[in-house]
Amino acid sequence: MGWIVAAKVDGKEVIMIRPGKRTLPGVKGEATWCTKKDAAGGPNDGWWKEYAWVLPKEEAQEVLDWLDEQVLLGKVDVFNRPSKAWIEEI
Q1: Number of other CB atoms surrounding residue 63 within 10 Å
Q2: What values do phi and psi take at 30, rounded to 5?
Q3: What is the pTM of this model?
Q4: Strands 84-89 and 12-17
Q5: Contact predicate 7/33, CB 8 Å
Q6: How far apart are CA 38 and CA 66, in angstroms?
Q7: Mean per-residue pLDDT, 17-28
Q8: What is the rounded end-to-end Cα distance, in angstroms, of the chain?
Q9: In contact, 4 and 55? CB cutoff 8 Å
């Protein structure tokens, strides 16, 4: 197990995922957001194994801190700008 970066984008709870896996429309970049339900592709409890970035807590917090910094600097585009982000244990 580990920690993931989660957020709310357009009112939907999402997770940060690897590139090219069921991304939200219009989202581009090395990592993107995907709803947990979409990542699972059904009632599969193991969605994080294939899609999410699963990190040790310290590394997940570093990603979150970097993301917050990018938002403050205005470097994160509208599709990747979470209204709220946090790290979540899985």
Answers
A1: 18
A2: -70, -35
A3: 0.73
A4: unpaired
A5: yes
A6: 25
A7: 62
A8: 6
A9: yes
CA 81 – CA 83 distance, rounded (Å): 7
Judge whether 32 and 24 are in contact, CB under 8 Å: yes
Q: What percent of the chain has pLDDT over 90?
A: 4
Residue entry with tokens 């570093």:
62
Closest CA to 34 of 80, 83, 89: 80
Q: What is the CA radius of gyration of the chain?
A: 12
Q: How many residues are given for the chain?
A: 90
**Count of alpha carbons within 13 Å of 74, Cβ hemisphere only?**
0
As a whole number of angstroms, the longest Cα–Cα distance in the chain is 38
Tokens representing residue 83 in the block: 């209204």
**Residue 16: in which H helix or E strand, if any?**
strand 12-17
Report the alpha-carbon angle 37-39-42, nearest 5: 55
